């Protein structure tokens, strides 16, 4: 029996409709769905995805990492030009399965950071790094200072705070290879932090679908670690970096001590040298005029119109590195040496003008 083209098409459409109807009567099992939907990537109501709800769309400048449509556009996985987002995208999409499980993302072999530096990365976590590498770099800080063209301790209206962005794990992990922090001239900085043979990729330590830390993997080598909070007590690098006299505390606490010392130096410098008190708040633009003198942006101090503006080159470098150390909450695991070096060098650079504690850096 022979079939005409029209007959074949009719049979095909009939089969498709029947199959579709049958599929609707069955539960579709999407692997890892319940794990993902309860993760930060699946939380459509969270700030990373709901921030633009009132606008009704995610702008091009943010869509590559804050919407699935934008992610596919950025990668060129939708057939468009790669490494550029062509239009704004729908809100509340989250990071869906196809954002990471597509032929482009799964075959990435390198990642270019905001510094312009490119890291060859043929491992699976290259697909994570694009969106965890920040939006600024040490190079952008340096360029802003060069453009302002003023001495280290002169306030310039042309200088503004540059925010590295959020969840910048790749910046920490690859250190000087990524150039995410402001690295001072004449200093050497840690490159990629090689933990061990069993923890070289993001998903070696994190569940790729829930993003939760696989604490049980730590227990094989680190005795006494039974839950996430115990990781803070781990250290392998010797030295009292924050100068508090305790060489046994976990490396996380060394970093926290240095962050506190750096912020203290920043506030002193801002008042004594820049001539305007500074406060920090957990919201854009992060550094504000400190009207009540408590060092914390609270109440109406958090208004964008109250953003700190008395920037000198020296102060901008230090504030940028403070933010780098602040916005990767796992920096003490990802690359503690690099973050300690950034913090120490920022403290000691401010020490050229104000009194600072004695701190140390791993070489």
Q: In sequence order, what are the helices and strands, one letter per element? A: HHHHHHEEHHHHHHEEHHH
Based on CA inertia axes, which overall geometry fits?
Answer: globular
Strand content: under 5%
User: Which sheet architecture does the biggest sheet show?
Assistant: 2 strands, antiparallel
Q: Please, how many helices? A: 15
Please give the order of strands in the largest beta sheet.
Answer: 1-2
Mean pLDDT: 91
Report low-confidence residues grouped into runs of 5 or more. 1-23
Radius of gyration: 24 Å
Number of strands: 4
Q: Structural class of the helices, strands and pairings? A: mainly alpha
Gap from first CA to last CA: 81 Å
- Give the number of domains: 2
Helix content percent band? 25-40%
List keywords for this structure.
single chain, 363 residues, mainly alpha, two-stranded antiparallel ribbon, 4 strands, disordered N terminus
Describe this structure in words.
The chain is mainly alpha-helical. The protein has two domains: about 30-105, no CATH class; about 140-275 and about 310-350, no CATH class. Helix content is about 40%, strand content about 5%. It has helices spanning about 5-25, 35, 45-50, 60-65, 70-75, 95-100, 125-130, 140-150, 170-180, 200-205, 215-220, 250-275, 315-325, 330-335, 335-350, and strands at about 110, 120, 280, 285-290. The strands form two sheets. It has a two-stranded antiparallel sheet with strand order 1-2. It is globular, with a radius of gyration of 24 Å. The termini are far apart. Residues about 1-25 have low confidence and may be disordered.
